[in-house]
Amino acid sequence: MTKSVTSKDIAEHFGLSLATVSRALNDSDDISPETRRMVLAYAQEVGFISQRSTSLKGTLGILWGKRMQEGTALASIAALFSDVAVKSRYKVKNFDIGNDFDAATFFDEQKLCGALILGVGYGSPLYLKLKSATTPVVLLNSQITGNNVISTVKTNDMLSATDAISYLISLGHSQIAYVGDETDPYLNAERFSGYLCGLQTNAIPYRFDLTYNTDPSYRGGETAAEYYLLYNKFITAALFSSEKAAEGFIDTMQRAGRKIPRDISVISFCEFSDEMELPFATIRRDCAAIGRQAFDVMKAMLRGFHAMESTIPSALIGKEKSCAPKRLPSSTDGD
Q: Helices 18-25 and 7-14, interaxial angle, to 10°?
């Protein structure tokens, strides 16, 4: 009968202390990543099994303020977070939370040691309720200050918007509209600040009449297009906070005889996953990086660290779907 491999055998194999091997087998951050990977790989190779290394560390929740939609960036982020958590020996449960959600009691009732919150922004009635949380929580692209157990993982939307505007200007655009999301002041402020910064960096004067805030929906995009058409606002490009609004805008403009992108180049922040193909340039989140980072932040808080803010870069996808302006503004264009 083959003798079972023990942690002492692993320690002797590598010339490590039992304490170091124990920390590696329990996925501790107190040792170098290289040592941890080396010990875990060898333990798997020789079939090492211990009760402690297979037991659950606890249950994490993924709390949805809005019902999950397949194919979206949030669904991809949730899947990555769950995958990493399960590999680290946590059980993960999904919950749809409504207006009756009580942060003071929910986590204890569901026996959760922490939670990733998705679909809850500043405009959500659930946002204020989270302020009373005493269990570690990670928010995505929203922030609650003054609570040491509420962390934020965010995308750098200001920098992304700045880069998008600079790219459009490099193509020759100067009449660039901004169509913002009036329902989420936090995200809109970040993205609008990037829009302003992009203009200022490239010495393009800001025109308040080329900014339109609306609902982040298809109908919201329609109303934005109607505004620019009704008041004869000459634009050759537009940055959108919502891809749904961008779709409504494009359809309305095309019905009015405008060609996209020949007449108007469109760039939009996008909530869809990378697999979703759209007919305009998009600013995409790195869903895999966000999911992994959200778990790393959660793990740090579970080990006693205070709340933190972590930023993940986005990428401009589909640049070829934008083009140089067909013509420059003239004195006959509305202002």
A: 110
Can you read off the two tokens belonging to residue 196? 């302003």
| Burial group, residue 117, by CB count within 10 angstroms (0-12, 13-18, 19+) | buried
**Residue 136: how many other CB atoms lie within 10 Å:** 26
| Residue carrying structure tokens 């996209």 | 260
pLDDT given for residue 164 in this prediction: 98
> Would you list the domain boundaries of the chain?
7-54, 58-155+286-313, 157-284
Contact 267, 281 (CB under 8 A): yes
3-state secondary structure at position 323: coil
Question: What radius of gyration do the chain's Cα atoms show?
Answer: 25
Q: What is the pLDDT of residues 194-224, one digit of tens each?
A: 999 999 999 999 999 999 999 999 999 999 9
Q: What is the mean pLDDT of residues 150-155?
A: 93
Q: What is the DSSP string of 186-224?
A: HHHHHHHHHHHHHHHHTTPPP-GGGEEEE-SSHHHHHHH
The answer to whether domain 7-54 and domain 58-155+286-313 are alike in fold is: no
Topology, domain 157-284: Rossmann fold (3.40.50)
Q: Which two tokens stand for residue 26?
A: 């329990």
Residues in contact with 168: Cβ distance below 8 Å, sequence separation at least 6, in sequence order = 176, 237, 239, 265, 267, 322
Asked if residue 127 lies in contact with residue 120, where contact means CB atoms within 8 angstroms, the answer is yes
Strands 314-317 and 281-285: antiparallel
d(CA 271, CA 242): 8
Token pair of 4 as six digits? 């079972």
CATH of domain 58-155+286-313: 3.40.50.2300
pLDDT in tens, 249-274: 999 999 999 999 999 999 999 976 55
Q: Residue 131 has what pLDDT?
A: 84
Instruction: Domain 7-54: give its CATH code.
Output: 1.10.260
Q: How far apart are CA 183 and CA 261, in angstroms?
A: 27
Does pLDDT of 37 surpass 70?
yes
